[in-house]
Amino acid sequence: MTMARLPILRYPDPRLHRKAKPVAQVDDRIRQLAADMAETMYEAPGIGLAATQVDVHEQVIVVDISETRDQLMVFINPVLLSKSDSLSDYEEGCLSVPGVYDDVSRPAVIEVQALDLAGESFVVRAEGLLAVCIQHEMDHLQGKVFVQHLSRLKQSRIRAKMLKQEKDRADDPSGEAASLAL
Ligand code: QAP
Ligand code: CO
User: Fold this and answer.
1) pLDDT at position 180 over 50
2) Residue 17 in contact with residue 143, Cβ under 8 Å?
3) Which residue of 133, 135, 138 sits with most ligand 1 atoms within 8 Å of its CB, as the best mutation to test the pocket?
4) Mutate to test the pocket of ligand 1, among 52, 62, 95, 105 (most ligand atoms within 8 A of CB)
5) What share of the chain is helix, strand, coil (3-state, %, to 5)?
6) Dihedrals φ, ψ of 2, to 5°?
7) d(C-alpha 37, C-alpha 5), whole Å
8) pLDDT at position 179
9) Which end of the chain is more exposed for a tag (fewer CB within 10 A), N or C?
10) Measured between alpha carbons, how far is 135 from 176 in angstroms, rounded to an integer?
11) Which residues lie with the beta carbon below 6 Å from any ligand 1 atom?
12) Percent of the chain scoring above 70 in pLDDT
């Protein structure tokens, strides 16, 4: 299977707010999507990516929080079975919001059921960074970006920062020349 890097949507792209549909069948098309998403995540580099971020509105998530970058987890049609009452804060970031990091409070422990690449159901209990990452990526499938957990003031500052970044990239002729030279 040959893998490809996919373009990542950047906040405030309205397509990040679309709600993903369940995968009807775990077939080669979905396995290819997951492989391409993994390639895109590893190259970024990142620890999690949702299909929504590559403009595919189906319920697929890839996660790898290992230091060695060889513990890929794929969640298809993930469902939250349970969440702890206790919350925990973590400074999150997102490949769709580059350069922005802020604390988000979420349930500390979760239980998630999903399908794997063979279409088999599995359940995972997660805590710590894995719990944060799975919840962050499941939010993407609902059309929610982590900045939406922050205050309206912070959201409008982040939006302005991202729009300026986008403008600066468009105005930069060297970036253009560099990509044309490839
Ligand atoms: C979600 O995020 C996450 O701003 C995955 O310049 C993040 O992989 C879950 C990244 C934190 C739990 C904790 C962000 C890369 C990667 C950036 C990512 C950047 C380069 C984010
Ligand atoms: Co994200």
Assistant:
1) no
2) yes
3) 133
4) 95
5) 40, 25, 35
6) -95, 135
7) 7
8) 52
9) C
10) 36
11) 44, 46-48, 90, 92-95, 98-99, 132-133, 136
12) 95
pLDDT tens, residue by residue, 94-138: 999 999 999 999 999 999 999 999 999 999 999 999 999 999 999
Question: At 126, is the secondary structure helix, strand, or coil?
Answer: strand
Atom of ligand 1 nearest to the CA of 48: 5
Identity (one letter) of the amino acid at 124? V
Distance CA 66, CA 69 (A): 5
C-alpha 15/C-alpha 53 separation (Å) is: 8
Q: pTM, whole model, 2 decimals?
A: 0.95
CATH code: domain 14-172 is: 3.90.45.10
Element of type H or E holding 32: helix 28-43
Read off the tokens for 78.
């993930």
Token pair for 136: 């962050």
In the 3-class helix/strand/coil scheme, how is the chain assigned residue by residue? CCCCCCCCCCCCCHHHHCCCECCCCCCHHHHHHHHHHHHHHHHCCCCEEEHHHHCCCECEEEECCCCCCCCCEEEEEEEEEEECCCEEEEEECCCCCCCCCEEEEEECEEEEEEECCCCCEEEEEEEHHHHHHHHHHHHHHCCCCHHHHCCHHHHHHHHHHHHHHHHHHHHCHHHHHHHHHC
111 is catalytic: no
